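Morning - aspartic acid inputs below, output right after.
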Amino acid sequence: MAKRPAAPTDGFALAIHGGAGTLRRDAMSAARSALYHAGLGRALAAGHGILAADGSALDAVTAAVVALEDDPLFNAGRGAVFTAAGTQEMDAAIMEGREHRAGAVAGIFGPRNPILAARAVMEHSPHVLLIGEGALALCRAQNLAFADRDYFHTASRWRALQQSFAPGATDDDEARRHGTVGAVARDRRGDLAAATSTGGMTGKLPGRVGDTPIIGAGTYADNASCAVSATGHGEFFIRFGAAYEIAARLRYGGQTLGAAAPAVVDELAAKGGSGGLVAIDHNGAIALPFNCAGMYRGYVEADGTICTAIYDEPYRRS
Ligand code: ASP
């Protein structure tokens, strides 16, 4: 596993992921890799700009995830994968660690940025998780932007669905199967936040909900411990309460994030759950562990240097 980056010193910090469903290393060209690094860099710059201007962790993770949702390379928003029925159903969640406010949506199609739909649930409804027509009605009432089928349709995700139907198709191609985007941040006031957004898994049954919008599974934030955004085979992250499990180890077990986050990811692997996560603790230390071939990921150093990586490799600095 790549070396864990050191904690930043100036009080705020940000880490993101673009999903653990990376292209196989042998299928990744230099040109394509550059596009992924650039997409991660744009999202980090968006979030970092907010934190550096004394903005909130909540706004920073929102901005970072919006940037990733707008990028068709990643499985969220515009680049969402297709269900077995050829539809797209998106899940997203956001949480802040001071008051434990949270909002989530599941199985939605239409809002251009599902993370903004999740935030609308948090800020403009008395609920945590909305689905179906009710979720869409709230988005309309809040004047969120909607997009049409053409906007969300990407040829590569459609091809991935067709490939998954091919006779003898195996489930070993992570890029075809899944992906997700997410961000965690700590602002100068010491507040933590997490945001996660996904199209889920290619060929999923219509109606399937993954770990992303399940608070404590794929998304969690608690100022006293840490904020977590996960990616991977969602059923495992739900069954093992992955994000909350890490927070609990910090809060009740006295563990460091650097010990707890990779340990939970390793334990998931032992149960068959591939994936990874980004996490940040109340001091701003970050962890980006994964148990599979790669995870699109990055963080910003205190001086603003953007660090991104895909596989178990040195971070690219820009
Ligand atoms: N965790 C997502 C889900 O299960 C997919 C992924 O991150 O690859 O919906």
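Note: The radius of gyration is 17 Å.

O.
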